[in-house]
Amino acid sequence: MARITAGVATSHVPAIGAALDNGRSTEAYWAKVFAGYEFSKRWIAAQKPDVVFLVYNDHATAFSLELIPTFAIGCAARFQPADEGWGARPVPVVEGHPELASHIAQSLIQQDFDLTIVNRMDVDHGLTVPLSLMFGQPAAWPCKVIPFAVNVVQYPPPSGQRCYNLGKALRAAIGSFDASLNVQVWGTGGMSHQLQGPRAGLINSEFDRRFLDLLVNEPDVAARIPHIDYVREAGSEGIELVMWLIMRGALDPKVLERHRFYHVPASNTAVGHLILENPE
Amino acid sequence: MALEKPYLDVPGTTMFDADQSRIGYHLNMFCMSLMKDANRQRFRADERAYLDEWPMSEAQKKGVLERDYNGLIALGGNIYFLAKVFATDGKSFQYAAALMTGMSQEAYLAMMVAGGRSPEGNRYVGEQQPGEKN
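ok -> structure tokens follow
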């Protein structure tokens, strides 16, 4: 059977991708960010996941205002890196896993999570920056990826509790797939940041550190954080953190924290990163 | 009955909710069109003429021409859509953020490197110190 072995949480700041793509990752400002992922690259090289279920948000790239799905699962065989207005990132095409994705879609809908099924979609920095942070700059991504896009552009996004519950359903869905696969679930976005208006630049490291603790040890508490707390305390874009709860819900109640990294800033954003393993 | 909007008293912040999305639909779809290079070129060649192809309000068009991002957000613009405008100008998110805060690029960068804008005094409208910006 397919098994979820680990979860990864990470910010997906576009400027991190740009720094890597433009050969600036060794500059002092960016080296501090990439240093937090050195362990992660070694860890994932040893883990060799077959599939990453990657929770992220689209940033007005694949979805405009014509169509705003709250939860969208990518079931295609491949996904092209998107041109976000500067030309597409020079990263490999993302290979999907249509069989597992379709299985998950059917299972989640039968568990009352009404997903939007997407069979053609370009993927933006929200998905490709986490891959770059974890795998560096390979000629091809070393695993299959199932993109799972959550609406956090138009308010309200799904609640933290809804995301956490979806993660639990996801665990059941993956666990019932009849093939021996090592699956990881990644939650991306965050941490505190605000990109708009006179309050842009807001960072709340106290909120972020508490969120990291809660996510690891008391996810039920983290799931009950209301939207307004994210907005007021962690910035209008800090609300992206609800996506991390999908990852956490998919893991065991008790997890092993293998790695934690927190750094301010990357561009406008606080960078947070966790690696959590399910006990054997 | 009106929907609950508990975020209206967060200073310097406009949540892109269903009402804002409705007001800003054409503005944001204009922004979205700039994802295509051919459209970026036409926009750069004659911004006013390009804007006139869209059923946007005059205030929204003026906001785009003046790159008044705070004004555009009030008129229904969403930052991820407005990003297509400053990307067309070759500008970064950090540039736009600094502009919206009224700070210089240097001062904004320095604030971020020093840990960012503190939430202290920035949680509720009216709690800022006199003379202080959001």
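The longest helix of chain B spans residues 79-88.
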